[in-house]
Amino acid sequence: MLNRSRSRLIYLHYSHILSNRQLLIWLKNDPDITISNNNHQFFLPSLNLSPNQKMKLQQYLSGQMNVECEQMNQDKQLKIMTILDDDYPDRLKEIHDPPAVLYLKGDAGKLAHPYTLGVVGARKADSYTLLCLKKILPPLIERNFCIISGMALGADGMAHTLSLEGHSIGVLGSGFNHIYPPSHQYLYTQMITKQLLVTEYPPYLKPQKHFFPMRNRIISGISKGILVTQAALKSGSMITVDRALEEGRDVFAVPGPIFSELSSGTNHLIKQGASPVTEAADIINEWQIP
């Protein structure tokens, strides 16, 4: 029965008609995910579907599994994990809106790593971020930390590149058929070969602006703590920090020059109580790792 529910969840998720919240509501009301034109109307009030969603969902449920979905199932590199699975990460399941379905390429076992540190920072991060990460990350990687970031330009790419020989998880804001940014083609390939890439978006979905804040909740969700390198006061990195705090994660921040806009966010976080980090020992000692 679980296999049937799991397949139906993936089928619904692939359509991208329902939001993640709506899928979770469906699961709560109907754990078997009964898909039928005769009974799905019952769930429409609780799902709060728009007229357009109702029309698309009715069309989708009355049809057969489309060719694209079949092709996805034939991708030997692609793994699919659902919130129904036993190996779904416990930390991620605890957050307010855990992704119902995850698409993975690489070593899925990294999701169970005990020491996961999310690294976030500006896309326009400069040499200061690189110098700081070169000092802070290597000792953590030697201690078997798993470094998590968002595969974006700047701090994300730096963090993933520095941790390629250790453990790293990249969380995407698009489906696997669309590498973003395109300049990370080589890093993308290396991450699949040596590490792990994760996304909640079906392979065919292109990156969209509102996908990235949603991606950020996964970064913080699978992390034990978040390290912020450089970030302006109003930035995506600060949104990730907000999610991390909501989820009860530790927040670490690299102090920076007081005249730098890129350090205004991190310096503010430290004033608000985030743990300042100038070396790996600051995180190791905070977590009492022997």
Automatic annotation (TrEMBL):
It comes from the Bacteria. Residues 79-287 form the Smf/DprA SLOG domain. GO terms for biological process: DNA-mediated transformation. InterPro entries: DprA, DrpA_SLOG. Pfam families: DNA_processg_A. Belongs to the DprA/Smf family. This is Smf/DprA SLOG domain-containing protein. It comes from Jeotgalibacillus campisalis.
